[in-house]
Amino acid sequence: MSPFKSSLYGRLLVWFFVVNLLVLVLGGFLTRRFIEYTTAVEINWASLAEGAGQAYDSGGTPALQAWAAEQRQEGIDATLFENGQALTPMRLPPAMRQSLPDWLAEGRDMVMQPYPRLYLAVQQVTGKDGKVRQLVALSRTHVRMTQQTREQIFLAFQFGLSLLFIGLVGWWVARSVARPVEALRDATKRMASGELSTRVGPEGRKGPGELSQLAHDFDAMAERIEALVSHDRGVLQDLSHELRSPLARLHLILDLAQRSDADQAAAYFRQAEQEIGRLDRMTGEMLALSRMEGGLPGMERERVDLAEVACDGVAQVELEAAARKVQLHLAVEGALMVSGNAQLLERALDNLLANAIKFNPEGGSIELGVRAVEGMAELTVRDHGPGVPDEELEQLFRPFFRGSNAARAEGHGLGLAIVQRVTQVHGGDIHARNAEGGGLEVRLRLPLISG
């Protein structure tokens, strides 16, 4: 991507121009004020002559001597001359003292630099008595700062301001970039160490646009990875749970076949073939569930009649229910079409019925109902067993959770978890509650489709 299209690059470019503009504007302002200051402290020779004249007019020679003493403290030797004679003593170099009469005779204002770093001024001043006198003033400098000093101070101002603003903006930019980068680095290290719940969080989203978007994308990626890994682990757990019983039966059948004669062995082999077919179907169902949960291609949905699924499910568990002398009561209102996978829905119903038979007392009954409720197809399975403590109802569908009433029952706590996952991938919901009169009632709802 071109850097000119990057908001971070644009932001840095804008701040670079802003800093330079601030340096120019503020530097120019301070320099102007500095020049005004240096101009204000320049020696105003005309004003100095006027001050000498006023001092002499007000108090004569003593007042002029006091004024000259004040100027001497500021580095200026000055006095008034009248008719070529100094009214108060003044020290002058011999060469300048020899030339002074000629300068006074010219009768004009002048400022000279007879020697380096030495200024001599002659200014005409008229007193109150009408007499013209001349101010003669000698100073080591024309202003309090030399031009070189002023240029050096001006450059120092500009350089200092540049360093200050560039440092401040650089610190702010580095701070705004370093924080999200550090948060991303720490999150990446934790993610690499196996902490899949790692997220960059709000700290990483406070940076410039690209870094904030990068932190958001990292969180989305981490969430997706965590979901996929958790999903894969769940699939393995579910698959091991579902395959345990058929494999155990298959092992037993083959063991019996080995110990039997040819006729009996043939019957056992037919049973083994049925178990193998069941294992194959079960594996296909679990893979289908995995594809649906992971949003992977290859899992097509179809129109499924939930009432027909319920009838087939009851037929498959009739023998098991009869063995425990449990009666099955099915109530179906009519065809209820949903979109999904028939095998998965059959597996979910089989788990619900197997769970109900397992916890139902011998000689009891199980009610299975299918009806339409508020635009949803509702399937209800109710047993008359011990039920579930109210505080455990919310955990009933968690993998490997076994309630206090299931301590002596066979199983690994994955049957209802599989039912919930099948329901979720079909866009439905499932709830369990303790029914009036005892027993557990599970309600599974799926979206109806028209036609």
TrEMBL record:
InterPro entries: 2C_sensor_his_kinase, HAMP_dom, HATPase_C_sf, HATPase_dom, His_kinase_dom, HisK_dim/P_dom, HisK_dim/P_sf, Sig_transdc_His_kin-like_C. It comes from Dyella koreensis. Keywords: ATP-binding, Cell membrane, Kinase, Membrane, Nucleotide-binding, Phosphoprotein, Transferase, Transmembrane, Transmembrane helix. CDD domains: HAMP, HATPase, HisKA. Its EC number is 2.7.13.3. The chain crosses the membrane at residues 12-30, 153-174. Residues 175-230 form the HAMP domain. It catalyses: ATP + protein L-histidine = ADP + protein N-phospho-L-histidine. Signal peptide: none annotated. It comes from the Bacteria. This is histidine kinase. It is a multi-pass membrane protein. It is found in: Cell membrane. One of its GO terms (molecular function) is kinase activity. Residues 238-450 form the Histidine kinase domain. It holds the Pfam family HATPase_c.
